[in-house]
Design a protein that fits this description.
The chain has one domain: Rossmann fold. Helix content is 27%, strand content 18%. The chain is built from 5 helices and 7 strands; from the N terminus they run ββαβαβαβαββα. Strand 2, helix 1 and strand 3 form a beta-alpha-beta unit. The longest helix is centred in the middle third of the chain and has 17 residues. The structure holds magnesium ion (MG) and zinc ion (ZN). The site of magnesium ion has 8 residues, from loops.
Amino acid sequence: MKGFIEQIYRNTSSYKGVVFLDRDGTINDEELEVLPTVVHGIRLLNKKKIAVVVITNQPVVARGLITIDELKKINNTLVGDLKKRGAYIDAVYSCPHHPEKHHPDIPKHAINFRIKCHCRKPGVAMHKKAMSVFGSKKIIGVIGDHTRDIAAGKKLSAPTVVVLTGDRGEDGLYDITPDFISDNFLDAVQKLF
Ligand SMILES: [Mg+2]
Ligand SMILES: [Zn+2]
């Protein structure tokens, strides 16, 4: 079984806590463009010495649409774009898996990733690893656009915020109520303080 992908970009200061951010629909749109107010929101987290950790489900790998290397490059580009604008992401954790075993269109190289894993959100294996890496007992919060993100946050007993971007928390997969709802990312960050 192949595990999740861990990309640590920095781990320099003594963090006062950790925040978990979803990627698609929360910090970037479908074209991987950074969404409005995200730069300011991440800068605010940086200023408050919170470890900024992105936790993302990327079943596109298990569907054979991109490779692990391509996924890593996409994450590097996104983190690099933000860094140029003074917004630092400390780590990205990606789950490349999908739980459905058989599908006629799956290329051979992707079949290994078709497993029931513990990392795919609402699983919290990636969150837990990040907490061990960044030494943070305190979870400041979880921000996402999907009920999977919020369900994971609940498992961690963390404050949760749905942002009204991407899926807007309207996917209906989990019947779950976030602690806060925000129009945009910066507002979501501010709700946590
Ligand atoms: Mg999302
Ligand atoms: Zn996984």
